[in-house]
Amino acid sequence: MNLKDLLDDCKEKFEQVLLLIESSENDPETEPFRSRYEANKLLSELKLRLTGATAAEKVSDEDAESECVAAIGDINLTEEGSEDESAARVNVALALVQYYLSLNYFETEEFSQAMESIDESLATVEKISEEQLKTSLHICCLNQKAVLKSRTESEHQYEEARDCLKLACGLFKSWSREKGLDQPPSSFDHVLRPQSGPESVEKLTQSFESLHTTSLYLLAQVWKHMGLKTNSTLACYLTLKRILSGQGDVEKVDWVDWSLNCATLSQCFVTDELYSEARECLHAAYCAFEKLQISLQEEDNSKPEGQDADKESSKEKVEHCKADIDRCCVKYAINLLNSSWTFKSIPEQEMRQTYEEAARDIQDATFCSFDLNHRLVDLVKPCFPNVRVNFQVTCSQVSTFEEAREVFLFGQAKCNQAKLFFTENQWCRDYLDLIRDHSQLFKNLANFESDLQRKISMNKKRTDLLISALTNLSPEHYLQICRQLQFELGETFSDISDLQKDLFASKKDVSVASAKKLNSSINKSINYFNEFLKTFEDKSGKMPEQFPEMYVRPGLMAKFYMARLLSKLIAPPNVKAENVEKSGSYYKFIADYCDRFEGAFDQMKSEYPICKEMSLLTNAKKNASLSGAKI
Fold first, then answer.
1. What is the 3-class SS of 25-67, one letter each residue?
2. How far apart are CA 93 and CA 133, in angstroms?
3. How many Å apart are CA 364 and CA 38, to the nearest integer?
4. Which of 210, 535, 575, 629 is most buried, with most CB under 10 Å away?
5. How many angstroms separate the CA atoms of 442 and 454, rounded?
6. How far apart are the first and last CA of the chain?
7. Contact present, 212 and 247 (Cβ < 8 Å)
8. Over the stretch 299-334, which tens digit does the pLDDT of each residue have?
9. Is it the case that residue 251 has pLDDT exceeding 80?
10. What SS3 class is residue 76?
11. Using only C-alpha atoms, what is the Rg of the chain?
């Protein structure tokens, strides 16, 4: 058997491997890797034969050659006119088999074998001199090694993964500069993949571009784990753009994933207060989603009866996608209102300069030109020519109540749409997150309202939302969410009491009815903070000596709020004195806690001096309350 016949024989087994990998999705739960294990057996056989063939090629003396031939079969290595090319193809085939072994070991969670196989594949690739045959496979191997390195989640391993991906990008860069993309290399699996005929230059170019897009996507993930957030954000943005502009296999794109990734990316821009880019991502995500709906309808109409389960599964996946995009819009609205009210904490010019520096890094590392002004949505539209999406929300800072109201209404509409999918019974945690987001929208809108009575009404809508969520919630199953809702309710009723006090003072209203309203809000706030603190008690009702680390500030702030609220209660002198004494004990508790436990002071730097001072003034304030004097 000559090398050409050997490769033809290997193709048949490799085709079986591909069929097994494809069918692995249908393996039973009791044997989830059955098909993968069978594929690994075939790949190991192929590896043995191809390794023997490459070894035999190096043998010069007849005895050594005979020994190797006996091991692998009668392989004729001297077929006239094909020796060099066939030998190179055998090495490419061996590297490909080793690469697939690594992929399969990764899927079966045998990670050490996966790393060993990919290292073998890279070593084999290095022996191949013909760039045309090996470049695509070399990039695939480097991408796979980066995935394996990233799995360990250590800084050193992330650096190695980054280096692999930069090398992969460098290979793409070198080929593009020296030979051009109009003369692409062979596809990575061309040696063993069954072919009906030669691939077109266009198809090969698209495949080569797709490999580079994968390298860029992986590099974005690695940069994220290395703490290079801006680099990661821009690399993700560029990846999405490359897919749309044909620098990836558009026909194979999962548009559910693409639209979700696009919407998720908007949150990175929101964090950096680049709302123009965030809105751009959300708009593009909706365009892709509308196309999905059209495609789903066409598929449903073409599917025969009896496949209702598949139809429902596809429909739910798309509806879930839409609800997730809606949630990203809610976050957009919340953050835009908040940053507008706080006069934008991050200077836009400074942030854009940071992004420009990251863009230069990306260009150097990936051979990708980058222009944030090239609108993503303009690339979406040609892909979906029949899609029309009306997406109108400002990306500018708002300064008036009317402007803020438009953003609020946009966020509220998206919140209500998301709740249609994330129902309380089926998606409890997601539903509760939406309730809290809805509450936050009202809070941020109220900041722009000048009328005190209307501000109070908006905050009361917040309490209605939060109470309705908390009422049917089991602390046993949703303790963390219960604590969040209790604390937020305590804060909201505290805000209401402050607004009521200002309203009554502005009207010079000292009536009994007004005092009852004020006391009612104060007592509700104190009660919710008490409920929050009770969740930390043991079965005997005793508080722990220390709060859990993540609850140190919330726990101490609950005490701080209660101390402040008690002193505001309108009451007879003797009750007022008791409240002052109780308030002082809370201030003292906070000050003592910060003195005793390391790290607590750092979390209460602003409040600590107040607590120290107020705890010392307790007796004087108590005596003043009894005498009716002010201090």
1. HHCCCCCCCHHHHHHHHHHHHHHHHHHHHHHHHHCCCHHHHHH
2. 10
3. 43
4. 210
5. 11
6. 104
7. yes
8. 666 666 555 656 677 788 889 999 999 999 999 999
9. no
10. strand
11. 33
| Helix axes 308-341 and 275-302, enclosed angle (nearest 10) | 170
Evaluate whether 490 touches 558 at the Cβ level (below 8 Å). yes
Contact status, residue 462 vs residue 497, Cβ threshold 8 Å: no
Per DSSP, the residues of 110-170 read -HHHHHHHHHHHHHHHHT---HHHHHHHHHHHHHHHHHHHHTT--HHHHHHHHHHHHHHHH
For residue 512, what pLDDT band results from cuts at 50, 70 and 90? confident
108 HSE (CA, 13 A, CB side): 23
The model's pTM:
0.80
Structure tokens at 158: 């992330």
Sequence spans of domains, the chain: 449-535, 564-631
Half-sphere exposure of 439 (CA within 13 A, CB side): 23
Q: Is 246 left (phi over 0), alpha (psi -120 to 50) or beta?
A: left
Contact 100, 109 (CB under 8 A): no
- Kindly report each contact of residues 469-478 with a partner whose C-beta sits within 8 Å and lies 24 or more positions away, as own/partner: 469/431, 469/432, 469/435, 469/436, 472/424, 473/432, 475/535, 478/428, 478/429, 478/432
Share of the chain above pLDDT 70, in %: 82
Rounded to 5°, the CA angle 551-553-554 comes to 65
Q: Buried b vs exposed e over 595-628: b needs ≥16 C-beta within 10 Å?
A: eeeeebeebbeebbebbbebbeebeebbebbeee
Residue 327 parent element (H or E): helix 308-341
Q: Which residue has the tokens 């043991």?
A: 538
Distance CA 120, CA 94 (A): 9
List, for residues 88-107, the tens digit of each pLDDT value.
888 999 999 999 999 999 99
Residue-wise pLDDT for 413-442, tens only, equals: 999 999 999 999 899 999 999 999 999 999
CA dihedral sign of residues 155, 159, 164, 166? positive
Both structure tokens of 532? 């929050």
Q: How far apart are CA 51 and CA 519, in angstroms?
A: 84
Cβ atoms of 1 and 79 within 8 Å: the answer is no
Long-range contacts, stretch 625-631, CB < 8 angstroms, 24+ apart:
625/573, 625/576, 625/577, 625/579, 625/580, 626/573, 626/574, 626/576, 626/577, 627/573, 628/573
- The whole-number average pLDDT for the span 68-73 is 43
Q: Which residue(s) pair with 76 in the sheet?
A: 2
Count of alpha carbons within 13 Å of 48, Cβ hemisphere only?
Answer: 10
| Own/partner long-range contacts of 13-20 (Cβ < 8 Å, ≥24 apart) | 13/42, 13/45, 13/46, 14/42, 14/46, 14/97, 14/192, 14/193, 15/194, 16/42, 17/42, 17/43, 17/46, 17/100, 18/193
